[in-house]
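Section 3.1: Structural characterization of target chains.
Under the original work plan, the team committed to producing a structural model for every single-chain target entering the pipeline before any wet-lab resources were allocated. The record below documents one such target. The sequence was received from the expression subgroup and is listed exactly as submitted; it comprises 349 residues.
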Amino acid sequence: MTFWRRGRVLFASGLALWASPLVAQVSPAHFESILWLHGGPPRDAKFCTAVKAAGYSAVSVSGGADAAMPGAHGLRYYHDQLCGKGVLEMRSVQYDPVLKAYSLDRDASTLVRPACLSDSKVLVALLGVVGKRLAKSLPNQPWAISLGDEVSVTSHANPLDLCMAPASLAAFRRFLAARYQSIGKLNTRWQTNFASFERVMPFTADKIRARELGGDTLPDCLEPWAVHREFMDREFARVIGLLTTAVSSRDNAPPVGLTGIQQPSAYGGHDYAQLLPLCSFYEVYDIGGARDLAMCFAPAGATQVATLFAPSGDLNPAIVRAQLADLIAHGMSGVVLWSAGLHLMRIVV
């Protein structure tokens, strides 16, 4: 069986898109070759014909964009960024002011996530967006749905001790009361002296370092910081779970989940044991074996894709063959070719 197609160049209205140089010759139901659309020319018949001629079977549709466009021109699609930007994934305009404010005087009260994950109003607004976009998307039979790309409690896995918003603190204190049962037990475990659960404040990394590091002995108790990070992981997964349920409960709903999932870390909310079981569709950035770890927690039969990014300099086609062979061997359902910001590139295989 011939597994690879000859690479081509798709170039329209000044936008160069890296065409898939090597596409698996298997049933599209099992392996999609997806062009991630970013800016560029109108999505008309000429454009879509060029996309198909380049070897793609599907494209992305982002946010509230026209979900009918791909099918009208014989392409499948996955719905990317169904929830949009700014809530599940904070952009620089939301994240940077919080980081800057905290950097000035290390005042923990400034560590407020602009879209607090424990705020019911934030969740209701998200569910409203999801409902409106699903009403337009589902009739067009998306192949899969991503709630968001590179979503995080912070920004990617950057270390910032979010969130100290009132709704988040209230939920955290309820979580502590359920876990420790009494403030005395919490104080014993934390080596603190809080008068009540209502007075408990999370320890930032700064505060736990000041208490535990700098002496001649190893840290004795990191629990006041670690439990807050655990709580934020739980809140992140709780919100994702509510959103995936809102999609999957619809008639004829496709696989749903997240793309651009970060590697596990203390920050970001990417606890695979909590997050991956919620995703029937997912993409994990393969950093430090993260992709293999994710497969251990994802549901059996989940739809998994991976992104191929344009390399810099000359491309050896054998490397692309190896990348795609690796993806197929790992049971990927498709590959997404990231097209943003590419220059004209010719790949001959």
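The domain at 9-104+116-156+235-338 is CATH 3.20.20.80 (TIM Barrel).
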